[in-house]
């Protein structure tokens, strides 16, 4: 949904600086295509009042040619070669720079796009402000229409989606209208509403290509009981501008009923007998079709029927079938639908929230009610409750992400950094802490091992799976994708540092710990032969735990202090002293017609309230997940390692995966890579130190000593990722390699035995 750029008119906006060079350079740009071969002097011009432009990002940061589009609306600026600049004045040449300009409609969107390139900030694809209506495509505009627009002939209305409507809703909804019509005819006084229901029965059986119109009754033709005064019943003919010919009137026996009596008695009978049943039916249709997303036009059809059509006097409702030769209708068009299914409704948003996230709120509500009301598992099993609680984390993660992005975009740098550092990992930390608390209360070490597996799974998945999947999907559309190798190098260096710090206590325990085995058997029957031992581990509690308490534990606390300090240094390096590695500057380019003030979806206070409520619901869902995970751990034949590194690690990251894929499809692989790297760095430098700090105040079974499998998988993943990102470009083959390695590691975890104590 990218708006088309139009050439600015000189008589309105004045001549743009360097416009002549832009026209020449666009030709050069189409020929050469590669931004990296052209060098020009960078400058930071003043932003004119009333004009807004997002900062531009250098070629490496965006990883694409001059045609690269980052986020709607994104426009490339013109490109100029030295020969082009020599042909024009020095003033024109100053605007010939190698840059790609990120355009934004307002200041808030500009801040959001800028935050996407900042280390430690959550990368967010969706808009946090309302987009100008004129910038939306025709497909998107149709999604928000009220189904009251008459279009020209678009072919046959017999489509698969319309037939699906007939099978799901049309037949029984039409039958219900027939029953209501019969009931209203029996009451006599409600006969006009009976005639209306009879007409609507035919409409809702197949509403496509038909129109419901609100007609105006002329003052000279007074209506008595739904009939025209001074007209002989059964002989009067009415003409329609749509049909262009006379239409015989139906015989209406209720015309002889007293008008006042009919008006009051019929309305009472309608709202007592007919309308409630139709409200239930249309409500069911509306909810069902809304949850199916692609059938949202049917939901709009039902909602508009309840709120408009069924509340009108029956004599003012006219149901017509559209003909091929249409003329303007007399009166207001209330309903006009052409198709029941629209696959583009996955783009539909409600107050800036994607329709899928809105629908999944119902899942969160069901999870909380079922989990806390049915505490004894009378209505559902623990497995179902665990699955629902885990799935409920996804929409809550979406709301937390949008709230963080909204607050950061409307605040200064300091507030944004604090909010991202505080709530950026709240989803994972909530689950980990509740699991450790439950394991401590039950004296079960298995929960601590599950948390370690989830931490390792998040690290490995964000280093291998998320970048690899984005490379594959983005590489299908773009033959080769480029990214900012310098910014990726900063994240890689922090990853090396963090992984080394996290696994330092584990390596220390391997060197100085005593290997203790549960049982050993002599294989060769020779006292000096080989022994086969089982359940071996390094004992850190030898001599009353001297090794652990005197050496390992101080090392753990030292590492937990150094890692957050390194994270802060990384923030200061990338955002303050060396922010130029991201090549984000302010440009004077602007989109013609973009002079709109920012209309945010969520204000800062509203975003803060949603953030706190989502965090509270997240805590409740995490508590339910840990409460009902015990049967799965004890009865499942799958290794607990595998459950931790897959389900518990990657399900909360699904919104981030979707954002990374969307960035990759727009040829902006830099942000896709940074999404995975940022999460992995936060796991090692923030989440693990917070868990260690938590164990100081609330003793648990969590120790910063991982199994050999976790150490080898994490080390190998980080090394492979750094090797892949070395040259600053990639394709789908390299992404396939990363994804295949990730699946191989999952296979290793799947066949690995469960950790000791589980």
TrEMBL record:
Keywords: Antiport, Calcium, Calcium transport, Ion transport, Membrane, Phosphoprotein, Transmembrane, Transmembrane helix, Transport. It is found in: Endomembrane system. Signal peptide: none annotated. It comes from the Eukaryota. Residues 386-503, 607-749 form the Sodium/calcium exchanger membrane region domain. One of its GO terms (molecular function) is calcium:proton antiporter activity. Its main location: membrane. The keyword Transmembrane helix applies. The chain crosses the membrane at residues 163-186, 268-298, 353-372, 384-401, 413-434, 454-476, 488-508, 555-575, 732-752. It is a multi-pass membrane protein. GO terms for cellular component: endomembrane system; vacuolar membrane. Residues 160-210 form the Inner membrane component domain. GO terms for biological process: intracellular calcium ion homeostasis. The keyword Ion transport applies. InterPro entries: CaH_exchang, NaCa_Exmemb, NCX_ion-bd_dom_sf, YccF. This is VNX1 protein. It comes from Brachypteracias leptosomus.
